[in-house]
Every structure is written in C-alpha cells, then in structure tokens.
Write a structure and sequence with these properties.
The protein is an alpha+beta fold and about 1000 residues long.
C-alpha cells in the first residue's frame, strides 16, 4: 500500500496547485473562458495533460481517508446542506451556462461541459462525515458515462474522488420487439431516456458498497467538479447523513406495527427483457437459444427472451423493472435466472424498491453458480417479505462486488506491490538473469523479503476467506495459493529468485487476469415474479424431456436454416437489392443489419442481403462468379490487387465521389488509389502512439521523449535498470505468401526524413535511395546496437513496468483501459517521437493501417451498391455504429473509424483525444502498387539478414558464428527483388511495354 501511495504521490499536485490557485470571488463566464484558453495553451506545451496532473495526488485511498477521520472521532452531523448549482463561485473553461425551467425543473440549473471546472462555496454548520448527492440531468453527449473529479478546498480528498461517474438512462427504442421477414426477433435498439435523477457519490469500481463520506470541519469550504468526460446539467448538490437501512427483522417488525398484511393469491410476472430502464446500452435484451426454460421460446426462430448475461457484469450497472401492484401489502420476490458464468464465487446484486433499500440484507443478494435456469426466491425457503403500496413500483437490481469487494481491493494492491518489486529485481538481474550467478538481491533490496512475506500472508488470508464465502475451492483460490507458495519459496531460498523471475512474472500476470475475472458478476434474467406469500411460483420448465426435445429440434433445424444470413432477406427480384459480405463477428453483423433495416432500406428503397462470411473466401467466390456486390472490412492490400485484375469497381466515376472523399483524411485513401482511380472507401484507420508509464518514468527521473535523439538517451537509462523500450512488433507472415505491410517504425522513420516507398508514380521502389538506405540502417541498429526485442506482449510488459514506454497501435489504449485497472491513472499516450528539422520543428509522420469497403466489378446494380457504401461511411452511421459497438462490447471495442467527424463524436476522454488528434495531423498512407507485396516481404527478409543472421546462435552449448551482413548492401540487394517484381507486374497488367 505504501509503495502505491508513494508512486501516485510522485505523480500528483498540479491539479491541486493549478486548480486551487486563488479564485477570489464570482468569476464571469467571459473572463473564465479567457483564462481557460490561456491555461489550455500552457497545457498543450506540457508533457502531461490535466488529468495526469490530477493523478499526482497525495495517494490516499478512501479506506485510509475514512479510517483517518473516523479515528479522529468524527460525529454524524444532523444538518443537511443544499447547494444551488446555479449559484457557483467560479468557473474555469467553456461550456458552462445557467438555464431556467430546464426539462420541467423549477428554478435555474447549471449546464456543465465536458471540460473545465466549476466551484461552489458552502458554509458547514457542524464538523463531521457527510454523504453527498447530485441532482443531475444527463443531456445528449457521446453516449458514454459522465465523469467528474471532486475537489474539496482545491484538493482531492482521496484517489477514488478523481473518478466519479454519473449514469445515463437507456431504454428500448420501441415498446414491441420487431421481426425480420423470416420471423426472427430483431435486437431492440437502445436509446437514451434522460430524466432528472439524484445520485449519491460512490466508488465507480465497486470496491466500497456504501456511498462515499466526506469530512468537513465546521466553517467555510469550497466544492469543485472537474469535467473529465461528457456534459450534464446540475440542479443541486446536497450534503447530508444517510441513515443506514434496518435489518430484515427490524423492517418486518415495522411492517407488522404499521398493520401491513400478507396479500393473498397474487402472482405478477414481468419478462426480464421488458426492463423499463438500464444504466448502459450494453444491457440490451438478449436471445437465449440454448434452453427451453425461457419465455418466449422457439427452437427454430430467434426470440428476444432474456436480459443481462455476460454484458451485465460490471459493478455499478443496473436494470429497473416497473411493477403494477394491485393492492397494498406484503409480497415475496423471485427471479428466474441463470448464473453459469463464474465458478468459485457468486454474482452479487443490490436490490432497491423505488430507489430505497428495503432492508440491509438486500445490499448483498447472492446468485450462486448453477448450470441452467432456476427459480431464485429472495430469502430462500423462508422468503423475505416486502411491503409494496398499490400502484406502479420500480424494482432495481444493481451489480456489486458484495463481500468480495475488500478481497479484490487487497489483491489489486498486492499486485501493484509485487509488480513494483519485480521492477526492482529487474533493475539488478535483467529480464534473463545468469543462472549461475548469485545476485544477492535480498541484500541489494533490503525490503524485498519483508514485502514478499507480507504479500504471501495477505494472499493466504484472502484465499481462505474466498473459500469460506464461496463454500468451496475453485480456480480463483488456486491462483492465489500458487502465488503465495512461490513467494514462500523465494523467502526460504532467496538465491533462487533470479531463476524464478520468469515464473514470478507469469504468476503476477495471472493475478492480473484473476482481478479482471473476479470483478465480473454476470447474471441473466428471464422473468421477475412478485407474488403473495401463499402463491406457488411457476416451474422453470427445464426438465429432462423438454431439454431433449429442444436439442433434437434444433439439430433438425440446423439443416434447413441458413445461419449466415443476417436479418431481412430480399426475395422479390423486382426490388433493387445489394448483396453485402461482412467478415467480423455476429454482434457486429446484427448491429449493421438492424441499422440497414432502420434507415438505409426505408430511405432508399434498396434491400440489402447481408451475409456473415470468412473473408478469405472472397477471392475464390469472385473467381467463380459467386461473390458479393460489396465486401466490407477488408485489408488495405486487397482493393488495388483486385483493381489490377479488373475485379474491383472504380469509385471515382460516380458524380458525388469528391464530396464523399471529404469525409476522410487524404492519408486514409492513399492505399486504395491505383492509376487514376480509387477502388475502396476507408472504414477504419489506425496508427501508432507512444504509451508511457507516468509512475515509472517519474521514479527514473525521465521525461517523455520528443525526438529520436531523446529516445537514444532514454535507452541508456532504461538499459541501466534492465528495462525496455517497446518498438512496433516485427510481424512475421502467419501463412506462406501472406502479404505483410512494411514495418510501421521503418515507415515512420522513412517519412519523417522525407523518404518515399516508391518513385516515378509507383514504377520503382525508392528504398535504395540515400534516405531509404539510411533509414534501414537506423532501424536495424535499434536491434543490433541497443538489443531491443522484436516480439513481445506489450500490454503485459507495460502493465508490470518491465516496458514502461513503447510505441503501439492507438487501439491499445482501449485494451489497457479494461485490461489493467490497477494502473489506472498511471499511464498516458502522446504522439510518437519525431525527427528534428533544420528549422527547429519536429516532424512526427506516422503510417496508417486500416480496413476498407470495396465494390466488386461484377455488381449488377452499381448505383445501388454505391448508395450503400455512401450510407455506410457517412458521419451519422459511422458514429452510430461506433457507439453501438462500444455499447455492446465495452470500451475495449471502441471503433477506430476513418470518418473524421465520426471519430470526433466517439466517447474519448477529452484530454486523451487531444493527443490523438495531434498525431492524426501527421498520419500518412502507404501506397499500393503492382508487385508492392514484395516490399513488406523483402524488407522483412533484409531485416532478418542484418539482425538475426548476423548474430551468433547457440544450440546445445555450441556457438555458431553469424554471417555479418551490412545494412547498406543488404537493403540494396533486396530492393533489386522488389524492382524486378514491380517491373514484371507492370508488364503483366499492360502498364509498361
């Protein structure tokens, strides 16, 4: 814990300084905007953005904060303090505006943007610990969660206050489920249903079941909200003391004293998929086809019949159902549910009725593992009774970590400490220690054995408690035991630590995976029942014979139903129809088909037959005359290769082509140009960014490199501490003949120095030019002189700190956000290092990759196909699809669209997106030419000749001397192969005589 605090402590203070700088009185919006613009200009020149500055707080977590103030004998205040949001003391930034009568709310409210800060002054009458709530309205934004940081008197009270989240409210767009023309239910589209809601401030990670409490001394204070993502409207803030919920026995006694009676012979059934509201669009109604127990059920058709499932796993997510209660009285509550997702632990939910906890036991409602659907009656054999008044009631289930929360929190802290110790050992031994050398690491790192002992004891205690809670052993417990056993062995035999370093790293990696899995609490709901205590609940319908009938029926149907066909199928030959192939997952295909049926077909009258296929079948299908009209999500090399052979249609001939091209950056279209035509529209565009660990660089006294000269200086420090700099992977072909794009680092260095891949309009390779040869030499020296690794798992090494800085595809950001929660706030990304120019500027060119949509030349109705391609790449549709993907699959699936306006509309945190846009300005495309597939292939061959074949190889104790290859001679030799292939292909396709 102490290590983590120091690391975070080394990384904070700027927000507390920059945002705490005197704001003496009410500040006008106009002057605030001027100050914000100046501050943004200063920030743009700094190495760290505002968020990273804020992450440099004193490093106190909420548990310590609460213990500190409870230990000081903090009293429970009796006073409530209500702060009118429109009566702010000061603002910084733009997007703040007061409005009156907003969405039915009386009085004035404050609109807050997705950047900036607002501050209120309050007078606290008595010292104590206060809960805090916010009455807010989630106005339209980018469809992601609303994030704010809370400052009290200009400082973060504790780490978790930097990540406060306010939910948006989602519902099905239509009340009734629509069907395609084959009788299958279509997944209901999720739309926002914003409304005024009051939210208590609580931990977004779910590590603390109770809402946050904030300590205030009596007197004058300031409260500030720093906008991190998405706008919202605030009516008021409220400081108060929330009374704890009674126990069930106390609640039942209160019911009886109030004269509440048990109702008779009432059974209310609500289908799970008919939820009234959800906190996330990922909680859309599901299709369950593996069990006959669900309602509605069909063995041959797709039916929307459940909700939740694996999508409903993140702490804080909630689903609400409306119940029309016929008479006031006492009822029992049950769910027909399935929890066959997690073993060894159980899924936990928090149940509230009309926003209130009926009694304390509903804070932790367990749903234990069992295969198939079952009836979960709350309270078990002696059901809990709930007092419900006549009328419409709202029942909410919210995902929580329950009793596992403190255990998961401790494991996360343990993992952070173990990774920090791994880095210390690494600085002494390196990643590949000498097996026969005694490094005496226990003497060089005095606190190492004590840290190992502390963490081993902690993991054993957690493992024991985990077994008690889950009622048995499981995979989760086994991993903790494995880690603790290894720590014990390292304590007993410290001289073996260097040779155990590999397995130590693997086990800590496994511990990180354990954290991710254990935080997931999935649950699938088919039906919700509210019944009188005497009413018998229905059976689950999952008997042996019903299951047997289901399996037999689905087996027979598999011979007659085309599962590759998605959604509506056009059968009328008189209707204009386009056949489209898509090669991604079924979720993406279903989403796309729903969007087609909702907007494209009604607007154009053109039907689309969408098929989910393996895209490697495109070539044989095209040759056989069985290909589609349009193929989506294909690689950059395909359009031009098809165009050379007359298989792809030239899009530049359509009258509105130039207008469509304005949607993309010129770099995105470069790979699809051939001669005077363009043969594809860009779908996605990706490029590299520089990722760095703020805490590790701070420990080493390093700053983020601006140029490659800075990188060279960085190597010396990293090598000294046996750490690594990650360069883009040197990709090898996955199968013989696979087209390999030129290495992205080589391409970046070439472009930054003014080089090109081809000259004379693509007639010759330009890699034998002076710039090309020098670039190749520089690239190979990274591996021959600095001994950098060619292949590695960047996210894992970045997570442990072994590779605290590296260049990777910007989509790695999404992976790290989900994959490494324990380093949240401790890393960032910026544009890649550049090459200094004579005028003092830095050129940061970087190549892009991506995917595209092509029209096959055999398409019968090219105008219809073009209409579809224009629709698919439009701003609105790309934005909608990107948001839908993130809604379906979470932040890890954020869509890297090539559409400029659509990318602006996706829910990136503002400061991170500014870095992304800065790099986007220097993105360049790599052209495709006839025979160009030899470029990537022989560039790789030349690289291996210099880097691998030149190095000495060891086999069975025998050293085999490598054959020294000079970079200049090698690249010139391999360029000859490239030139010859380009020349041959140009002659083959009649481009040269």
């Amino acid at each position: 814990m102490r290590t983590k605090q120091l690391a975070r402590g080394a990384l904070l203070a700027a927000l507390c300084i920059s945002l705490a700088v005197g704001l003496p009185g009410p500040v006008s919006l106009t002057s605030a905007e001027g100050e914000a613009q100046a501050a943004q200009a200063d920030s743009a020149n700094g190495a760290l953005d505002e968020r990273s500055s804020r992450d440099r707080s004193r490093g106190v977590d909420y548990a310590q904060y609460l213990a500190q103030h409870e230990g000081e004998g903090a009293i429970s205040p009796q006073s409530d303090i209500v702060v009118d949001a429109s009566q702010y003391a000061a603002v910084q930034g733009t997007g703040f505006e007061t409005r009156g009568g907003f969405e039915g709310m009386e009085g004035e409210v404050l609109l807050t943007g997705e950047q900036g800060r607002v501050e209120w002054e309050i007078q606290v009458p008595e010292s104590g610990l206060y809960h805090m709530s916010v009455l807010y309205y989630p106005i339209e934004g980018k469809s992601s969660g609303i994030e704010r940081a809370l400052l009290i008197d200009g400082e973060l009270p504790f780490e978790e206050a930097a990540y406060l989240q306010f939910d948006r409210i989602w519902d099905n767009e239509l009340e009734e489920v629509e069907q395609d023309n084959r009788g299958n239910d279509l997944r209901p589209r999720q739309v926002e249903r914003p409304e005024w809601r009051e939210a208590l401030l609580k931990d977004v990670e779910g590590y603390y079941a109770e809402p946050f409490q904030f300590h205030f001394e009596a007197g004058k204070h300031t409260i500030s909200f720093v906008s991190e993502r998405e706008p919202m409207v605030i009516k008021q803030l409220k400081l108060f003391r929330q009374e704890p919920a009674p126990t069930y026995e106390e609640a039942l006694q209160a019911y009886n004293q109030a004269g509440a009676r048990e109702t008779q012979n009432i059974l209310l059934t609500v289908q799970g998929e008919q939820a009234a509201a959800k906190s996330s669009p990922t909680l859309y109604p599901q299709t369950e086809r593996s069990s006959p127990a669900v309602e509605p059920y069909s063995a041959s058709k797709t039916r929307v019949n459940t909700i939740g499932g694996y999508n409903w796993r993140v702490p804080g997510q909630w689903i609400e159902w409306k119940i029309d209660v016929p008479e006031t009285g006492l009822y029992k509550i049950a769910f027909k549910s399935q929890q066959n997702f997690v073993r060894g632990i159980y899924s936990t939910r928090r149940l509230t009725i009309d926003g209130k906890l009926p009694f304390k036991e509903m804070e932790l409602v367990p749903f234990r593992y069992k295969s198939g659907y079952r009836m979960d009656v709350l309270g078990g054999d002696d059901p809990y009774l709930y007092y419900l008044e006549k009328g419409e009631r709202t029942i909410r289930l919210e995902t929580t970590l329950g009793e596992f929360a403190p255990l998961i929190r401790e494991v996360e802290d343990s993992l952070f400490n173990l990774n920090a110790m791994y880095r210390k050992i690494l600085m002494i031994t390196g990643a590949a220690p000498d097996q026969f050398r005694d490094y005496r690491v226990e003497q060089q790192i005095p606190d190492m054995l004590e840290t190992f002992r502390t963490e081993s004891d902690r993991l054993k205690r957690i493992s024991k408690e985990l077994r008690r809670l889950s009622g048995g052993s499981g995979d989760a417990e086994a991993l903790l035991k494995t880690m603790s056993v290894q720590l014990d062995e390292m304590i007993d035999e410290p001289y073996t630590i260097p040779r155990r370093l590999g397995s130590y790293k693997s086990n800590t990696g496994g511990l990180g995976t354990w954290l991710l899995r254990t935080r997931e609490m999935p649950l699938e709901i088919d039906e919700l029942y509210v019944a009188s205590p005497d009413k018998k609940l229905p059976k689950t319908g999952a008997g042996f014979f019903s299951q047997l009938k289901h399996e037999a029926t689905t087996f027979v149907n598999s011979f007659v139903i085309d599962y590759n066909q998605i959604g509506n199928v056009a059968e009328d030959k008189d209707v204009r129809t386009v056949t489209v192939w898509i090669g991604s997952g079924r979720d993406q295909a279903n989403t796309l088909k729903a969007m087609i049926d909702e907007t494209f077909t009604p607007e154009t009258g053109i039907n689309v037959n969408l098929k989910l296929v393996q895209m490697h079948t495109l070539l044989p299908a095209t040759l056989a005359g069985q290909g589609p009209d349009v193929a989506m999500q294909i690689g950059n090399d395909i359009p031009v290769n098809y165009a050379m052979r007359g298989a792809a249609a030239d899009l530049s001939g359509f009258p509105d082509f130039e207008e469509v091209m304005e949607r993309f950056r010129p770099s995105a279209v470069v790979p699809y140009r051939y001669e005077d035509g363009v043969y594809a529209l860009p779908e996605t565009q990706t490029f590299n960014m520089l990722f760095y660990r703020k805490d590790v660089l701070a420990e080493l006294g390093l700053s983020v490199p601006e140029t490659w000269d800075d990188v060279a200086e960085l190597f010396a420090v990293l090598n000294k501490h046996h750490m690594e700099f990650g360069l883009p992977l040197v990709m090898q072909p996955q199968y013989p003949g696979e087209n390999i794009a030129p290495n992205s680092l080589f391409a970046a260095l070439l472009m930054q120095n003014g080089g090109e891949f081809y000259r004379d309009g693509g007639k010759e390779s330009d890699l034998d030019s002076r710039v090309g040869i020098e670039t190749f030499k520089t690239w190979t020296e990274f591996y021959t002189d600095y001994k950098l690794e060619r292949e590695f798992d960047f996210p894992n090494r970045f997570r442990t700190g072994q590779m605290p800085i590296g260049i990777a595809d910007y989509t790695t950001y999404n992976q790290l956000t989900v994959f490494a929660p324990e380093i949240r706030g401790l890393w960032g990304f910026v544009p890649i290092p550049g090459t200094a120019q004579a005028d003092g500027s830095v050129r940061r060119d970087v190549p892009s990759g991506g995917s595209a949509t092509i029209m096959l030349d055999d398409a019968e109705d090219k105008d219809a196909a073009w209409s579809f391609m224009k629709w698919w790449t439009s701003d609105e549709i790309q934005t909608t699809f990107g948001r839908e993907m993130e809604s379906l699959m979470g932040a890890a699936a954020r869509y890297p669209t090539a559409n400029i306006n659509a990318l602006d509309s996706l829910p990136w945190p503002v400061n991170d997106y500014e870095q992304l846009k800065a790099q986007f300005e220097s993105v360049r495309g790599i052209p495709e030419v006839p025979g160009g597939y030899f470029t990537g292939r022989h560039l790789l061959n030349a690289f291996y000749s210099v880097v691998v074949n030149s190095a000495d190889q060891k086999a069975m104790g025998i050293t085999i001397k490598g054959e020294k290859a000079e970079p200049r001679e090698t690249i010139v030799e391999y360029v000859q192969y490239m030139q010859e292939e380009i020349r041959n292909k140009r002659m083959e396709f009649g481009l040269d005589p």
